[in-house]
Amino acid sequence: MVRKRHYDARHNVPAWILVDGRERQSDDGEPSRTSGMPTLEVLRGAGLKNVCCVVTRYFGGTLLGPGGLVRAYTAATQAAVAAAREAGQIVEMTSVVPVDVHVAYPQYEQVLRLAQDSGAKVSDTDYADTVTIHLVFKAGEQEPFCAKMRELMAGREEIEVGAPKFAEF
Questions:
Q1: What distance in Å separates the CA atoms of residue 23 and residue 27, rounded to the nearest whole number?
Q2: Residue 131: which of 145, 110, 151 has the closest Cα?
Q3: Confidence at 8, pLDDT banded by 50, 70, 90
Q4: DSSP state, 125?
Q5: d(C-alpha 44, C-alpha 120), whole Å
Q6: CA-CA distance, 33 to 66, in Å (whole number)?
Q7: What does the pLDDT look like over 81-111, one tens digit per residue?
Q8: Domains in the chain and their CATH numbers?
């Protein structure tokens, strides 16, 4: 898509990193390790995952040499990352665990306080015969809450712990 959009560019240099550790880069015809690797290094240094960056370069008439290419691609990638951060386009994703708690109405406020004191975020609440509080915890932080709930409610609660997933927190 970038190549189609910038068809007249000399080079479209991609680099990407996935959360599972896979990463790739290409010099797209530039001298070896002068474009893709510097782009990838900036992404690594910024601690970004699940990200792709394509730096497009048009030939301006001046040969930059290997050092100049490294500096140019590094600067372009740094500028792109800084602009994305400033614009709020970089979102931090965290491993989270959804927990649904079903309680009677009289226990609602008490459970809500305990959840908030335990670091949970309330994603939704359903009011029916009982109250269902949909909570989200950072992975690993749900167990102390569940233990306190069992102790506090002495079996008058129902807790459903979901599968971990990545989400904003």
A1: 14
A2: 110
A3: confident
A4: E
A5: 30
A6: 9
A7: 999 999 999 988 889 999 999 999 999 999 9
A8: 2-86 (3.30.230.30), 93-168 (3.30.70.240)
